[in-house]
From TrEMBL:
It comes from the Bacteria. Residues 53-181 form the G domain. It comes from Rubrivirga litoralis. Pfam families: MMR_HSR1 (PF01926). Keywords: Membrane, Transmembrane, Transmembrane helix. Residues 265-274 have a biased composition (Low complexity). Residues 208-243, 265-287 are annotated as: Disordered. This is Dynamin family protein. The chain crosses the membrane at residues 497-518, 524-544.
């Protein structure tokens, strides 16, 4: 079986790996630098002594309580804020003070209490110097246990509740509460009422931070250390101990009386933190009895054994991990909200692309139908002309090709070429107007994606907005430079260059159609003229030739119309595809960064789940090896004397 030391090293290695993964997750979630620094601080704290942080508002008696623990004045006391910096008390063979920064002082004290832990005295959380509160709040995440000092005359004020929400809700820190100035109570009933008020406040605080957690009975509390009537279990942040967490114990004390009793019982040079001295036994002093200080002191000197401190130290980073993962998850969820808006916007754009393309197909279809209608009318007039012209009475017209051409043009083709070109121009304008509207709509929708984005998404939003800026710049340039007439000219030229009908490439689609129809008429009438050259046979031959000529003309014109229709539809559809495709391609970089961000975000959320599960498993292993941290507190409550 592994020794406790070897087991502890294994747990420390696992926690360092967990914190490294957590740091990477916080980077991905774009957490602010102070939050990301927490993982480094937590990793460092694993190699440090057990850290007990004393916190509370100024004038609650924090410094007096610390002095009472050591039996001498190691911290300055006074009616105004006296602790103007964080003071770290460590064990040392001699009393020495070292400045570690503008607001941090380290002091060595020869006291048995400090052989197994470091004690941190913090400025009042309501100090008029804002830097003090910021430093206190910066130090809390490093704590293995927080001893919070409130006072009988102002028990659990609203500002204290806010601070405890930070300690418990944001960081899930282990917490013990000292209700100082208990000697101000006129009666035991009055003190019990205030203790109950503090317990109720802590209970309400836990409800806010541990919403929905199950409850289980707490250990029986001693008269000196008052425990609320329930404990909690679950995995919510802020429960002060993770799995098996409990509502904090409340120790009513009178630190001023305890310090006075110890000062009188011990020589001035004594550094005893046990409550006894060489000049007399503090336990015989009535002030010591009245101070109710014994249970709190025994908690710190007897209950926090090596295993108990180790369990708390190993649990502290896991509690902080839970809070930090929650912070990372909240930031990732905020990014997911931005991504969801982006994806919805891009999906709407994609839908609009499809709608516009369908509308352009309808426009192209109408244009082709309009052109075909013109050709159909031309065909109808041509059939009527041939039926009228191929007769014995019109032989002179049939023999005079120039006259025939002129008459065909007058009665059949007229200005059909101009009308066909006009129809095509209208179609081109309709297509381009719709495409121009799509460019404007796309620009507006993309611009809306950049509007009112206040989420701190770090690199995610930076990359996204960089792409959006480039895309919007290109869209704006296209919209500003869009020349409808030039685009229409280009579209028609491309169509003319690509359409081949009857082996001929169009110089003008309308002109080509008219010329080919006229040529078809001349072709079919040429044989008629030869066959009907003899007028004497006209009454017999011409009716047959007329019917053949009309039939041939109709077949050839219809084939020409089909070729032209297919060519027009093909080329106009290609132009519509290209026009919508250009807008689609504009949006592709945005879609790519959103898709990549979605994959990265999903991976980060999965990593958050993995870290959470690993932290829970690690917590279970720690408790199996060293016991649940708060069970140690419960042992004090059930095993210590009253005073």
């Amino acid at each position: 079986m592994d020794s406790p030391a070897r087991s502890a090293h294994a747990f420390l290695d696992r926690e360092r790996g967990l914190l490294a993964a957590l740091g990477a997750l916080l980077d991905r979630a774009a957490a602010p630098e102070p939050t990301r620094r927490r993982t480094h601080d937590l990793a460092q704290s694993l190699d440090e002594l057990f850290l007990l942080v004393v916190a509370g508002e100024f004038n609650a008696g924090k410094s007096t309580l610390v002095n009472a623990l050591f039996g001498r004045r190691v911290m300055e006391e006074g009616p105004v804020p006296t602790t103007d910096k964080i003071t770290v008390l460590r064990y040392g063979e001699a009393d020495e003070t070292h400045r570690r920064g503008d607001f941090v002082t380290e002091r060595t004290v020869t006291a048995p209490l400090l052989e197994g832990l470091a004690l941190v005295d913090t400025p009042g959380t309501n100090s008029i110097v804002l830097e003090h509160q910021a430093l206190t709040e910066d130090f809390i995440p490093r704590a293995d246990l927080v001893l919070f000092v409130t006072s009988y005359d102002r028990p659990l004020s609203e500002s204290e509740r806010q601070f405890l929400t930070y300690v418990r809700g944001d960081w899930g820190k282990q917490l013990v509460v000292a209700l100082n100035k208990a000697d101000l109570a006129d009666t035991e009933a009055a003190l019990a009422q205030v203790v109950a008020h503090v317990q109720d406040g802590l209970r309400g605080l836990l409800r806010e931070t541990d919403d929905g957690e199950a409850r289980r009975p707490a250990p029986q509390a001693s008269p000196g250390a008052t425990a609320p009537p329930e404990r909690r279990s679950g995995n919510g942040a802020g429960r002060g101990g993770g799995e098996g967490g409990a509502v904090p114990l409340v120790f009513p004390v009178a630190a001023r009386l305890a310090l006075a009793a110890k000062l009188d019982a011990a020589p001035p040079a004594s550094s005893s933190a046990s409550g006894t001295g060489g000049a007399g036994d503090v336990r015989t002093d009535p002030r010591w009895e009245a101070s109710r200080f014994g249970p709190l002191e025994r908690f710190l000197t007897e209950t926090l054994t090596d295993d108990a401190r180790l369990a708390l130290k190993l649990a502290a980073p896991l509690d902080a991990t839970r809070a930090l993962v929650a912070d990372a998850r909240a930031r990732l969820e905020a990014q997911r909200g931005v991504l969801a808006d982006d994806e919805a916007g891009l999906a709407a754009l994609d839908g609009r692309f499809a709608e516009v393309r369908d509308a352009l197909s309808e426009t192209v279809g109408r244009a082709v139908a309009d052109v075909d209608r013109e050709l159909l009318e031309l065909e109808t007039r041509g059939v009527r002309f041939l039926d009228d012209a191929i007769r014995v009475s019109r032989l002179n017209l049939l023999r005079d090709r120039n006259a025939f051409r002129e008459e065909f043009a007058r009665q059949v083709t007229r200005d059909a070429d101009r009308r066909v070109e006009a129809r095509l121009g209208e179609a081109a304008d309709a297509v381009l107007r719709r495409v121009f509207e799509l460019w404007n709509e796309t620009y507006a929708r993309l611009a809306d994606l950049r509007r009112d984005r206040t989420t701190d998404g770090g690199g995610f939003l930076y990359d996204r907005d960089e792409v959006l800026r480039d895309v919007l710049r290109e869209a704006r340039r296209t919209v500003d430079q869009y020349d409808m007439h030039e685009e229409a000219r280009r579209l028609l030229e491309n169509a003319r260059a690509a359409i081949t009908v009857g082996g001929v490439t169009a110089a003008g689609i309308g002109t080509l159609a008219v010329v080919l129809i006229a040529a078809t008429a001349f072709d079919v009438t040429g044989g008629v003229v030869l066959a009907g050259a003899l007028a004497t046979l006209g009454f017999v031959v011409l009716p047959v030739q007329r019917r053949r000529a009309v039939r041939d003309f109709t077949d050839r014109v219809r084939a020409l119309r089909a070729d032209l229709e297919a060519g027009l539809r093909r080329e106009l559809d290609a132009e519509a595809d290209e026009a919508v495709g250009r807008v689609r391609r504009l949006v592709e970089p945005v879609a790519s960064v959103v898709a990549a961000s979605r994959a990265s975000l999903d991976a980060a959320l999965a990593e958050a789940d993995r870290i959470t599960a690993e932290a829970a498993a690690l917590r279970a292993d720690v408790e199996a090896a060293f016991g649940a941290p708060l069970e140690s507190v419960g042992q004090l409550a059930s095993g210590s004397g009253s005073r």
